[in-house]
Amino acid sequence: MTRFAITRLTLTEFRNHESLRMEPPQPLICLYGSNGAGKTNILEAVSLLVPGRGLRAQPFPMLARLQGPGSWGVAAEVEFPAGEATLGTGYEPSHGEGLSRKVSIDGHLEKSSGSLGAYLKMLWLTPALDRLFMGPGSERRRFFDRMVSSFNEAHAGHVSAFEKLMRERNALLHDYRADTAWLSTLETQMAEQAVAVAAARNEAATQLAKHFAAGDAQGPFPWGILQLQGQIEELVATKPAVQVEEEYARILHDSRPADRAQQRTLNGPHRTDFSVLHGPKSTQAELCSTGEQKALLIGLVLAQARAAKEMLGASPILLLDEVAAHLDQDRRRGLFAALDALGTQAWMTGTDMELFEAAGPHASRFLVKDGTVRAT
Predict the structure, then answer these.
(1) Structural domain boundaries of the chain?
(2) Distance CA 100, CA 112 (A)
(3) Where are the extended beta strands (E) located within 198-325?
(4) Dihedral sign (CA 85, 91, 92, 98)
(5) CB-CB contact of 30 with 367 (8 Å)
(6) Where does residue 67 rank: exposed (0-12), middle (13-18), buried (19+ CB within 10 A)?
């Protein structure tokens, strides 16, 4: 196999879909229908087939159909460069409220969703990301880490481990009776995870920046310059990993009084951000118009797909929610041409079938209505 793709998707009691099965015959999957029909719900279900909490990051009990039993399931037959697999994930109220869910691969239960990272790579754009360059750094960081995970399947686990250790450290800092030896142990472990996170980010940023700066000479989306800004990333780029671990552990030790006063950890990879420069205009993305920012964001995602294809032999699955709604005809045509050239599987939503007219013969079109799906 030379692609990441879902060949069969089955939803059970998920959002407004009581029971749904899709077998998309073409790589471009166009879902159209009125608002509230359930188009984005399908993309959300697909996004749960990779590590993490999906494109909406909602509590898992909330994903169950309102009139249903409270449980839900998502299953898929998938292709990836090394072969084929059956992936599944779901939630049962009897397993306890909160974030827990079941994950299975080829019928075998897994300990966490992290195992899914070996089978599918995925990236998504939603209307909420249209203001990514104007929003808080935490949103850009999460977006960038999803990009990194498409290159490095262990990255999400390192990010999660660092954040868990950081929460434990923050709790200990508030307890003046806490064991300082245990605090030092946590800081050492944080440093190990932080260096792994930073190294993966640096490697991905190098590959992504190369493809983003090259752009697509024939396409309508501008090239740009990506710059990663992070204390640990800068250290990892210039010093041996062991030395950076020691240095960051020392920074954490020395910053205990300030961190205790601020009730948070002030230094580390959780403060990293990135910026984008609009290449043709030499203007920071946050100073560009809304339309230019949208075009830059799409250009960045296409660059990431090209970089992943170069490194992995296949581009990640793309989930593009309402992506064509605010693009003019030329940019829609350019987007579909770029997706076609990449050979990527792309799941796209829109209110009208006309939005996907230029998608051509490599597109499958489905009408979504009241939680049902019909090929057209």
Answers:
(1) 1-120+314-376
(2) 9
(3) 224-229, 273-278, 283-284, 317-320
(4) positive
(5) no
(6) exposed
pLDDT of residue 178: 73
What CATH class is the domain 1-120+314-376? Answer: alpha beta
Q: What is the amino acid identity at position 292? A: E
| Of 368, 304, 367, nearest in space to 338 by CA | 304
- Residue 101's pLDDT is 87
State pTM to two decimals.
0.91
Q: pLDDT for 121-133, tens place per residue?
A: 999 999 999 999 9
What is the token pair recorded at 214?
A: 């090259």
Best-predicted range by mean pLDDT among 155-159, 191-195, 338-342? 191-195
DSSP β-ladder status, 283-284 and 122-125: unpaired
Spatial neighbors of 369 by CB under 8 A, at least 6 apart, are 33, 34, 37
Give the end-to-end CA distance of the chain in Å, rounded to a whole number.
28
The upper half-sphere exposure of residue 330, i.e. CA atoms within 13 Å in the direction of its Cβ, equals 5
Helical (H) or strand (E) element with 76: strand 72-80
pLDDT for residue 37 is more than 60: yes
For 120-166, write each residue's pLDDT tens digit. Answer: 999 999 999 999 999 999 999 999 999 999 889 899 999 999 999 99
Pairing assessment for the beta strands 83-91 and 102-105 based on DSSP bridges: antiparallel
So what's the pLDDT on residue 216?
A: 61
Distance, in Å, from the CA atom of 169 to the CA atom of 133, rounded to the nearest integer, reads 31
**Structure tokens given for 236:** 């990892």
Mean model confidence pLDDT for the chain: 93
Report the candidate in 91, 93, 121 with the shortest Cα–Cα distance to residue 103.
91
